[in-house]
Each structure stands twice: as C-alpha cells, then as structure tokens.
Amino acid sequence: MNATADAFDRPAISLVGRARIAVRILAMLLLLLACVPLYYLWRILRLHNPWPRIFLGGIAWIAGARVRIEGAPERKGAFLLSNHVSWLDIPVISGASGSAFVAHSGLADVGLLKWLCEMNDTVFVARHDRRSVHSQVEQVRDALTDTGALAVFPEGTTSDGLSLLPFKSSLLSALDPPPPGIAIQPVWLDYGQNVASIAWVGEEPGLDNFLKILARHRSVPVTVHFLPPLTAEEAANRKVMATAARDRILTAMSVAR
Fold first, then answer.
1. Per residue in 7-25, is it b (16+ CB within 10 Å) or e — as a string?
2. What's 59's domain CATH number?
3. Which of 21, 122, 156, 175 could be bridged to 117 by S-S, CB 3.0 to 4.6 A?
4. What is the DSSP letter of 139?
5. How many Å apart are CA 124 and CA 174, to the nearest integer?
C-alpha cells in the first residue's frame, strides 16, 4: 500500500461525519458478530461457506458502496487481475465474486486482520521469496469451491483510478504457467465520478482513507467489470499476461470515457 509520510494534511471531519463513522463501524461490528458463529457452524458441518462473502459484501454496503456488476467471474475458477483504488476494493470484489485474495505477508503480523483474512482463505505471500508463491496459491485453490476465485492487484499499490500503473509481472509468478482449468480474468473497478474522493493515493495514510469513506453522506456507486478472460496466447507467461491484462483494462476504461 501507499507509504505514509510524516506530515499529512488531514482534512477535518465534521461532527456529523464522525457520527456516520461511529454508526458504520458499529454496524460492521454487529455484522461480524452475526457472521462469525455462522461461519464456524458451516465449517464444522463441512458445508460450502458463504459467510466470508456475505460479510465482506455487507462491509462494502455499510461503507456506502452500491455495486453494479457487468460480466461475470468464470465459474470454473478464475484468477482475477484487478486495478486497485482503495481498501474498499477488497469487500467490493469479494461481495461480487466470493473471491479470496493474495496479500502481503505483513498483514499476517496483525492479529485481527490475520484472523479475518484467514477466514476468507487469503494467501499470504512474502514478495521477496517468489519460490513460495506457487505452492501457497495451489493450497488455496484446493480449498476453494464454487467460483474458486482468487484476486490479485498487479499494480502492487493503489492508484488514482483514472490511470493504471504498470502491472508487476513478479506478482503473477504463481500463474506462470496458469494452473490447468483456471481462467486469467482482468477486472476493472470503476468508481465513476466519485473516484477522486475514494482513491487512496499520495501521502494519505490507510486509516485516513478508511475514515474518509465512512464519513461520506453520499453512497459510492461502483461498477465491477468482469472482462473476458485472457486467451492462451495472452497467458503464455507472466510478462505477457501482465501486459495483456493491463491492456484489456485500459481498453475498457477508454471505451467507457
């Protein structure tokens, strides 16, 4: 994620905005308390567990996201390669697809986040140790059911949502070559005219971005575009894959605008 500078000009949040933050955080906690027992019950019964998707989709809705879906994730299994704008991307994508995520191993050092991530089958990757990536992805693939989706943010950080940073092919090393039967599917998250007020860029700390979004009085329309999967030629290796997926998203962005 974006680095936090020592000095950041934090915009003041009004009293009404603070009240919205408190109400939304309380609603998120209540949703968590409702979903956790059901998650463990489904796990004990060895049933397909919908509760991480329900929880994360609910988090997106509580935060104000109003999600519209175009296209659909591949039902036989897909690695989703998405642009990255804000923390809100994660609950939006998960709510829309049931996807698990590839996350930096540093998150595993934060107790509460690690617990929540593990319930959603997150793959923790040490980016300096590329040799471990493929085996970790394979372990999660075996555990996934239904969509079998696993999402990656190949930009490696958040962007302004109006442009697209270069895709880092090193983050796709686990997909080189793609596992048999798994589609490589680009995803474009389109926040429309709201993107400037949603994007986590520059020196803004993550907590400030989180609170800024929760303080909004307006909803956040976002369209999740599940674009056509890459062809076999476009997925020939991770460098070709990174370029092809980025081009697919850029094309969708240019057509929409």
1. eeeeeebeeebeebbeebe
2. 3.40.1130
3. 122
4. H
5. 12
